[in-house]
Design brief:
With 388 residues, the chain is an alpha+beta fold. The chain is built from 14 helices and ten strands. The protein has helices spanning 2-15, 44-48, 55-60, 86-89, 96-99, 113-126, 166-169, 173-182, 197-212, 215-226, 233-245, 259-265, 279-287, 331-344, and strands spanning 136-138, 161-164, 267-269, 272-274, 291-299, 307-315, 318-327, 349-354, 357-371, 375-383. It has a three-stranded antiparallel sheet. Strands 8-9-10 form a three-stranded antiparallel sheet. A two-stranded antiparallel ribbon has the order 1-2. Helix 6 (113-126) runs antiparallel to helix 14 (331-344). The longest helix is centred in the middle third of the chain and has 16 residues, at 197-212. The chain is globular and about 65 Å long.
């Protein structure tokens, strides 16, 4: 059986155009983790110590392209350079303008809708920590038309979440990391968020567990690296922390909000719920009696998790007309999808594909303040439910 599997793998590699052995980086530099190979050829392999023996020779020393190197620090050993000063010193790599010269915009070269859809399918397949049908049971009950979502009518007598296997799911590192961060916020805008050193450490742990310690997170970074968006995993992690957890003011000139608080934890502004697009936060608050589920106006086409719901509910007296969320996915999948869409389609609609079915994520930038060299914080992001 093992011989048949090995021969099948060799045939697959041949048809893909790979002439290299399973322990070489030939034609594989920068690509995501592939367990069919005995070693890896992306930047993360240096930290996980699973690089192929020719990784340095083929993927690092051959520094004649800006692919994956935009905005990197100056290295005199490189044959050409990919930072903003290379034009001044006339030593840019030949593809610097195509991949890195962004005129003050986003990072990297052009990323097509087809590439985003392909990556989202890969991330979907890699979501090994998602809830199974036996671990999560929901009861959507009343389905309402878009025209009824503002009526504030409680049409569902039972809880949305009928059962969740907390013991299994919440013991996983990414779930535990999310739970630790969710309770760090004051939901009312206009009140300053003062983060303790422990809470800041919990943010670091969440990003590390979801993006650095999962194959799903490593795949997202590998894609963005090969597209020239980030020069290193360190840059990627730092940017995620800033865009998601950097504080800004939504109300009363107080540092009262962040992308993570708005999307994952939820806020209250102007007497109604703002943001709130995470299913685990919904479950926790409903279990505690803090949230009353009214109805749903959209149920996605997926028959397994993750699925998508557009929900109506009250959170301690504050109403949410449509709170859409990806249901049953792992924290890393939720975080990766929103990050992918915000990085590649900031302030726009982002078309994804999950199991052959399309999901639209709408992203918004926060334009009133910035971080780094004029980068925008995440204002909001959520599954854009279709009109009935």
């Amino acid at each position: 059986m093992k011989v048949v599997a090995f021969l099948t793998l060799l045939v697959t590699l041949f048809h893909q155009g790979y002439s290299n052995s399973l322990d070489s980086c030939e034609r594989r530099c920068g690509y995501g983790t592939d367990n069919n190979f005995s070693c890896q050829c992306n930047p993360s392999c240096e930290r996980f110590r699973d690089c192929c023996s020719d990784y340095t020779e083929l993927c690092k020393a051959e520094a004649t392209s800006c692919k994956g190197r935009c905005d990197e620090k100056y290295d005199h050993d490189n044959k050409c350079h990919c930072n903003s000063k290379c034009t001044q010193y006339n030593n840019c790599c030949s593809d610097y303008k195509d991949l890195c010269d962004r005129g003050g915009g986003g990072g990297g070269g052009v990323i097509t809708d087809a590439e985003i859809k392909s990556l989202s399918e890969t991330l979907y397949a890699l979501d090994s920590n998602k809830a199974s049908a036996s671990q999560l049971i929901i009861d959507p009950q009343a389905l309402v038309h878009d025209s009824q979502t503002g009526s504030q009518s409680d049409l569902s007598s039972r809880l949305l979440f009928k059962y969740l296997d907390e013991q299994t799911l919440f013991s996983k590192p990414t779930y535990a990391a999310l739970l630790a961060v969710l309770d760090n916020y004051n939901r009312m805008t206009g009140q300053t968020e003062d983060m303790s050193s422990q809470q800041l450490a919990e943010q670091d742990t969440f990003v590390k567990e979801t993006m650095s310690n999962t194959e799903l997170g490593r795949e997202l970074f590998a894609f963005l690296y090969t597209k020239g968006v980030y020069a290193s995993e360190e840059d990627f992690i730092h940017d995620l922390k800033m865009m998601w957890f950097g504080l800004y003011s939504r109300n009363n000139n107080k540092m009262d909000s962040s992308g993570f608080e708005h999307i994952f934890a939820g806020e209250v502004k102007g007497g109604k719920v703002s943001g709130f697009h995470n299913w685990i936060q919904f479950y926790l608050l409903e279990k505690r009696g803090k949230l009353n589920y009214y109805s749903h106006s959209f149920n996605g086409p997926w028959t397994t998790y993750p699925d998508v719901l557009g929900m109506q509910f009250k959170w301690d007296g504050y109403y949410k007309q449509v709170g859409s969320a990806v249901i049953g996915c792992s924290p890393e999948f939720d975080f990766a999808l929103y990050s992918l869409c915000y990085i590649t389609r900031p302030g726009k609609q982002c078309r994804l594909s999950l199991g052959g079915k399309e999901l639209m994520i709408q992203t918004y930038t926060w334009d009133n303040s910035s971080y780094g060299d004029g980068k925008k914080f995440i204002g909001s992001a959520f599954p854009a439910t279709p009109r009935n």
